[in-house]
Model the fold of this input.
Amino acid sequence: MQYIASITITVSLGCAAMHLTWPSPTLPLLMSNKSPIGRKISPEDGSWLASSFLLGSIPGSLIAGFFIEKFGRKPCLLFAGVPLLLPWITIAFSNSLLALCITRFIGGAGLALISTGATVYVGEIAEKDIRGKLGSAFNILRLVGSLYVFSVGPFISYIALAWSCAIFPVLFMITYAFMPESPYYLIKSNRYDLAKKNLITLSRNSASSEFINSRLREIQATVDYDMKNRANVWELVTNKLYRRSMIVITGVKTIQQLSGVAAIEAYTQTIIEESESSISPEISSIIAGAIQFPAAILAGYLVDKLGRKPLMIISSVGCALALTSEGLYFYLQNIAKIDVSCISWLPTTALLLYLVMNPIGIFTLPWILLGELFATNIKGYAVSIASCYGSLLAFLATKFFQPISDGWGMHVTFWIFAGICFLGAIFCYFVQPETKGKTLAEIQQKLNRNIKSKPIMETKF
Done:
């Protein structure tokens, strides 16, 4: 049941991914003379349209943590389906560029609720031996959404794409309505009977009454500690107990977003068209969406075997090499003016290598680490701040991808992303702790072993 609940909630991330990849097949059409909104938009308009969804997730991230604590994980996650549905309706009925940007901005608030709420929800319902696998499901379901837009978007009409994508938020809201609320939140709200019922639902069929009662006591002890040791957002920044966790999560979120994943997914078809690849942009987009699945599944298998740290390093180095190659091709083509017909395969190959290496670690693992590195009494603030920071970086990367490419050359954009990935590999090697196979309490003790203070959390669960 833990698998079912986690997969159901991550369907919402697939819905969000559709909004992130929607510009890839749509922007070339909107910037053409056949624009479906009645006028040809400029590259600057296109950059705002592509990035407005991420811009909306910035303020959304700041309030998401408060909402999931005030109203519960399940109600907030269910509500997130509404802003994720709204942009598709606007696309279907409005020809206003401003209306599209505004509703995509509102949709970004849904992304913030999903990314914050899903991280907390899965972290609370999952046992430690499958926590990494369930966290990796975030990326697999995200790829389903991306693949759908990459595969279908170039071949159906602008309106048909919107209506077909609108089905998925509705499907999410219907299916997730039957999933149990987090037992942790229910005990925190003094609803013990429902917490026990949901814990039984989430446990394996062979779980004994002793196991259930033991888990309830563990959760209760954690809640008691949480309530007695409430921390505020200022402590997250100033308290030495949280300092290393903040450094690590800031670093990995920087690598995650400034590796350029959001920008590259939004401009995949444009990048392939600019490269004059021997493979058509439409077919390349489908391959780009499909090729990520084996990597995401492999990451889910390896994350609890090989570990978080090795996967982050491998992923960062692989992405850096791919982005360097991509930038080199555009430099030879556009700046050196060398005949690149003999290596016309390189841009698509390098892009595909990037899309394989990214989900192995860079995209997937920061979400897992976010649920592992912080004690329960500060986790809500930490998730909100980290999500806000990540959304800000993703917005900047997406918004300025086209202006930097137009002004300095697309090779510069790719080399910036590559440099971040190289530095990220060094950061992960020296700074990131290994959390594989450890309880949340053991992780806190490892992070703070040099600080002479009472451990952040003593209850193992």
Summary: The chain has 24 helices and no strands.
